[in-house]
Design goal:
The complex is a heterodimer of chains A (about 550) and B (about 400). Chain A is an all-alpha fold. Chain A contains 27 helices and two strands. In chain A, strands 1-2 form a two-stranded antiparallel ribbon. The longest helix of chain A has about 40 residues. The two termini of chain A are about 45 Å apart. In chain B, helix 8 crosses helix 9 and helix 8 crosses helix 14. The N terminus of chain B is likely disordered. Chain B is an alpha/beta fold and about 400 residues long. Classes of the chains: A mainly alpha (about 550), B alpha/beta (about 400). At the A-B interface, strand 1, helix 20, helix 25, helix 26 and helix 27 of A face strand 1, helix 3, strand 2, helix 4 and helix 5 of B.
Chain lengths: ~550, ~400
């Protein structure tokens, strides 16, 4: 660890390590009360809770990764990449909670599907007791996470795949008698798994640490550990504060353990690349291609379905089981909320734009810096802020604010929120970019240098156009992460900075579904615009590249 | 308070005490001229509050509450020139952690909506501004003599917070699910036996879930007086088996056989609207009308108390010592407990929260009330429940 840190120059140390260190020291200060560990060990349901967290963090990301790989293999096989990508933007941009709310109302035992069956066949005068997915269950939680993460991984695959001369490889494989599906699994999968290592790990960490989704659709006797940590944090019995710190610590250890697993998985995939896996053989291969093809209609149903849920709810008045549609429709809510939306909208947009620009610049600088010094820093340094539970970190920074004697004002709060957003957005923007950046063929740059271009000129004229898709996607991810921040915005903003997300999360703690739907729609709107723009930009490049071939 | 007194006698004694105290209020007001709207000090305070911004941290999950605070913001701007910013939080405990980390006069929170454990924590840490009952004139209009406002879950209020509204724990149920306006624990089990899978409760330590346990305990023990005193091991070993015996019988009949519970009362109410459950809880005595008017819950519901009386408590407004605009926050409280503001708050088309003013008590219908248990029972019950049912 010391060696890893010694390779950092001090400005980067300041940017990457110091904030997290401060957050841990000030936010997790209960960790040192060793006597409480015994009581913690005896907490009812503790081990089940840890088990839930580990289970979700292993199963959901793996299912998502292999589904995404399968879908890409099929898209490659059937040449349907472009259509696959079309539906990614809306799925990507929908905040996790909004997506979960939509999915719940589509599939739950009292959802639209059951109501439709009741309407058509009068099967369920009351919501069925035996139904899948059951509300508040581990399987529903995993389903939500898998469906939400597939688009992210698909997007990453799409961006990565562009870097390899796939068509040449496939022609070569064809001469050896391999079809496009099998050759994709044998050649592309190991390479993609390596390229996707960091984004995949981000999905793992997210599944491990997620609170809102777990509270909404997960089990609660006990809940996954991250939820229990927040519950302890919100109780003011002193011993509970220690428990919160211990829980955070266990999550941190679990994340480290998961990192080892991800690493091992990568090695395993490479070692097994030559083997003929069962899913490459008939009839499994045919079945798998069929399953992969299901993604397209599924994505359409998910996008249209969850948007339809949110839009219907935002215009609804009175909507109870078994009605398929509300008692009546109204525009009142939109009219009533409209005047109050401008400020949150403006705050969300400005914060996200600033965060996206700075996070992207920092990511590029970080990677350039490593390239110049011919180093590769261990990735966990950049991922640190994602590994420590957010509430602990942010509370540490809030204490720092008051220790420094900063009296909350509007402008200082805005500044603090920007810093907070950058800290949490940078890992994602870096993750999205890192492997593309490292695999960029530096010979282009050497050629440019011999032609008399300075490094940054060459970067602007050569590297930027070639890496435009991952660079833009990196900024878009930072934008979306900034939009979704709740705890940092509320606490660092001292309540002075209201965003669409602070409003939405507060509303979501109540039961006003119409209002929650309205705000969730708006919350999804800004990332949707950005992701669509990035996809369009990425597509233009793809067309040009093909034309160039 | 006498240890062996039954709760009613204790309550009566407290009321006599209060009456005595209240009788002194005019005298005190005479001596300390600040407790009147006409006093010079107060008028100066109001004048100084002009142009100030008050950041009011309050739960933001209810459209009724949010709209009410928007109305209050407009009125305050017109009447006092104060800008009220409602900082919507998903749980006020978040604001409490912020207050605990900020220095005097340099904090983020000017005013907060609070009660129970959150209040006790901040008060005992010395982080709340005191003497609100002396400085804010309208506090003398509140029904300290008629409602149990002086003690917030067993913690004496002592001027560190000002009552804002009343909560009464009760059930909302489909009209045909049972008869009568009360439901005894035995009747609830009977309902669950006839309708398995149609009832659940929010998992303690969620506030409503814990109150459900308390109500059961009160009814099952026939209001044992020890529930109103600090919890002892002896009392717990004698009383809790009543509760566990009852819950062991109830849980297999619950929604999903008690494997999972509702996460919150909002979720429980959503499950009621979605036809999954027949019964949900509420603390707002007017929730039935309010939710129906807002289109949140079906109209064919009725309300009932669990046991003969509803556990009644109040929610409050408090100012942290770290507030940047404490004087202006006091003016905001003055407005929020004024007659006009309390009347607006009680409107069924909005929030529907009952008033705490003495001059409005007659216009509102409340359930027969019973006091909160001693606050030490809260934590004890929550831990014991988790130990027993979460594993």
């Amino acid at each position: 660890m010391a060696r890893a840190l010694s390779t950092l120059t001090w400005p980067w140390l300041l940017v990457l390590v110091v904030p997290v260190a401060i957050g841990i020291v000030l936010g997790l200060n209960g960790l040192w009360r060793l006597t409480d560990w015994v009581a913690f060990y005896q907490q009812p349901g503790l081990f089940k809770s840890i088990g839930y967290s580990l289970l979700v963090a292993i199963i959901a990301p793996l299912l998502a990764l292999y589904s995404a790989l399968l879908i890409s293999a099929c898209a490659q096989h059937t040449g349907a990449w472009r259509r696959t990508r079309q539906w990614l933007a809306p799925l990507l941009s929908m905040p996790h909670v909004a997506f979960a709310v939509g999915l719940l109302f589509l599939l739950s035992p009292s959802g639209w599907l059951v109501r439709l069956l009741q309407e058509l066949f009068s099967l369920f005068p009351q919501p069925p007791v035996n139904w899948w997915p059951q509300e508040k269950s581990l399987s529903l939680m995993i389903l939500v996470l898998v469906l939400k993460e597939i688009p992210f991984l698909l997007f990453m695959i799409a961006a990565s795949a562009q870097q390899f001369p796939q068509q040449q490889w496939q022609r070569l494989a064809a001469t050896m008698g391999y079809g496009s599906y099998v050759s994709w699994w044998k050649i592309m999968r190991p390479l993609l798994v390596r390229q996707l290592k960091l984004p995949f790990f981000a999905v793992v960490v997210y599944s491990l640490a997620v609170v809102d989704i777990a509270a909404l659709v997960g089990p609660n006797t006990p809940a996954p550990l991250a939820v229990e940590v927040v519950n302890w944090q919100r109780s003011f019995v002193p011993v509970d504060q220690s428990f919160a710190a211990f829980g955070s610590f266990i999550l941190l250890v679990a994340a480290a353990f998961m990192y080892a697993l991800v690493h091992w998985h990568e090695g395993w995939v490479f070692k097994g690349a030559r083997q003929q896996w069962w899913f490459m053989r008939r009839p499994w291969g045919v079945l798998a291609i069929g399953l992969g093809r299901l993604w397209q209609p599924l994505a359409v149903v998910l996008v249209i379905g969850s948007l339809a849920v949110l839009i219907s709810w935002s215009f609804s008045f009175g909507w109870y089981y078994p009605a398929l549609r509300p008692d009546s429709w109204q525009v009142n809510l939109w009219v009533q909320e409209w005047p109050f939306l401008q400020q949150p909208l403006l705050h969300s947009l400005s914060l996200a734009l600033i965060t996206a620009v700075i996070a992207l610049s920092l990511s590029v600088l970080l990677l350039e810096h490593q390239r110049k010094r011919n180093q590769q820093w261990p990735d966990w340094i950049v991922l640190l802020p994602l590994l420590v539970p957010q509430v602990s970190l942010v509370l540490g920074w809030v204490s720092l604010q008051s220790m420094l004697g900063i009296t909350p004002r509007v402008w200082s709060s805005y500044l603090a929120v920007i810093i907070g957003h950058i800290i949490f957005a940078l890992p994602y923007s870096y993750l999205v970019l890192a492997s593309h950046y490292r695999n960029f063929n530096q010979r282009y740059m050497s050629v440019a240098a011999t032609l008399g271009y300075s490094r940054w000129q060459a970067w602007w004229h050569i590297q930027w156009p070639l890496l435009r898709a991952p660079l833009l996607f990196s900024a878009a991810m930072a934008f979306a992460v900034s939009i979704a921040q709740y705890v940092p915005t509320l606490l660092l903003g001292n309540g002075r900075i209201t965003t669409l997300t602070t409003e939405t999360v507060a509303l979501a703690s109540g039961g006003d579904r119409a209002l929650i739907a309205l705000y969730s729609l708006l919350q999804a709107l800004l990332p949707l615009l950005i992701f669509s723009a990035v996809l369009v930009a990425g597509r233009t490049r793809g067309v040009n590249a093909n034309a160039g071939n | 308070m006498g240890r062996a007194l039954p709760p009613l006698a204790a309550e009566l004694m407290r009321r006599c005490w209060l009456a005595l105290l209240l009788a002194c209020v005019p005298l005190m007001a005479g001596a300390d001229s600040s407790a009147s709207t006409n006093s010079k000090a107060w008028q100066q305070q109001v004048a100084a509050a002009q142009g100030k911004t008050v950041y009011f941290y309050a739960w933001g999950g209810s459209q009724g509450v949010n709209n009410y605070l928007r109305w209050a913001g407009r009125e305050l701007r017109q009447q006092y020139g104060i800008r009220l910013e409602h900082v919507k939080v998903d749980d006020i405990a978040t604001a409490v952690t912020v207050v605990m980390s900020q220095a005097e006069g340099a904090g983020a929170v000017d005013l907060m909506w609070i009660n129970g454990e959150n209040f006790r924590t901040l008060k005992q840490a010395g982080l709340l501004r005191g003497k609100l009952d002396v400085t804010i004139p309208n506090v003398s209009e509140l029904a300290f003599d008629k409602l149990p406002l002086n003690s917030d879950f067993g913690e004496p209020v002592e001027g560190f917070e000002v009552p804002w509204g009343i909560g009464q724990f009760h059930l909302l149920a489909r009209a045909d699910s049972f008869s009568g306006e009360q439901l005894s624990p035995a009747q609830l089990v009977q309902f669950a036996q006839e309708n398995p899978n149609r009832f659940t409760y929010p998992a303690p330590p969620e506030f409503h879930g814990t109150t459900f346990l308390k109500s059961l305990l009160v009814a099952l023990s026939e209001q044992d007086s020890r529930l109103y005193e600090p919890v002892t091991e002896a009392a717990a070993t004698e009383l809790l088996p009543l509760l566990w015996g009852y819950l062991d019988k109830l849980h297999p009949l619950l929604w999903r056989q008690g494997e999972v519970f509702a996460q919150s009362v909002s979720e429980q109410q959503r499950l009621l609207a979605d036809g999954v459950l027949d019964i949900a809880f509420s603390f707002n005595p007017n929730e039935l009308e309010v939710a129906a008017q807002a289109g949140r819950l079906p109209a064919n519901l009725k309300r009932a108390t669990l046991g003969a009386e509803a556990i009644t408590n109040s929610h409050y407004l408090a100012i942290p010592v770290s507030a940047q605009a404490p004087a202006a926050a006091e003016v905001v409280i003055q407005f929020l407990v004024s007659r006009a503001a309390q009347q607006q708050k009680a409107q069924l088309s909005g929030w529907g929260d009952p008033s705490v003013r003495r001059d409005m008590l007659q216009q509102q219908q409340l359930f027969p009330a019973t006091a909160e248990l001693h606050s030490s029972w809260q934590d004890y019950l929550e831990r014991a429940w988790l130990e027993r049912y979460q594993h």
